């Protein structure tokens, strides 16, 4: 009366579910700091900390292996942008083997500033693979009273 038919999922709906499961697996199985999707070339993304003090905003970025001339810091409107390009080449010859390795990666990180800063007092320092950008806060202007003239 009833025949046994092998179960093959829900057809195209089953394929969609498998594809979505595979996509989530790719995102969740990625190593921290590396792109989640396989096939993408890893890019260099520096770790950045932003700290507010009473006098300034301080942005610290870890940029190991980069020289100061390979980094650009700019402030356009209220957006601070850090960008640079890492070019690394290593060549080693020893005995009967020869190794040449090259790594390249560029980055760009932008941050919207929550307040006005004094543009003529901005500083950026680079030491031991750490970039420190100091953005002094603009002095708050006191209230201005405007006299009303009678006409």
Give structural notes.
- By secondary structure, the chain is mainly beta.
- It has two domains: 10-41; 43-136, Immunoglobulin-like.
- Helix content is 11%, strand content 41%.
- It has one helix and seven strands, in the order αβββββββ.
- It has a four-stranded antiparallel beta sheet, with no helix packed on it. It has a three-stranded antiparallel beta sheet with strand order 3-4-5, with no helix packed on it.
- Residues 36-42 have low confidence and may be disordered.
Please write out the topology.
Layout: H1 12-28, E1 48-52, E2 56-62, E3 71-76, E4 79-94, E5 97-112, E6 123-127, E7 130-136
Antiparallel strand pairs: 1-2, 2-7, 3-4, 4-5, 6-7
The biggest sheet amounts to: 4 strands, antiparallel
What's the CATH class label of the largest domain? Mainly Beta
Helical residue percent band: 10-25%
How much of the residues is beta strand, in percent?
35-45%
Q: Domain count, please report it.
A: 2
Secondary-structure arrangement, i.e. CATH architecture of the largest domain: Sandwich
Secondary structural class: mainly beta
CATH topology label of the largest domain = Immunoglobulin-like
Q: Please tell me how large the radius of gyration is.
A: 27 Å
Quaternary organisation of the protein chains: single chain
Strand order, main sheet: write it out: 1-2-7-6
Question: How many β-strands, per DSSP?
Answer: 7
Count of runs of 4 or more consecutive helical residues: 1
In round numbers, the mean pLDDT is 82
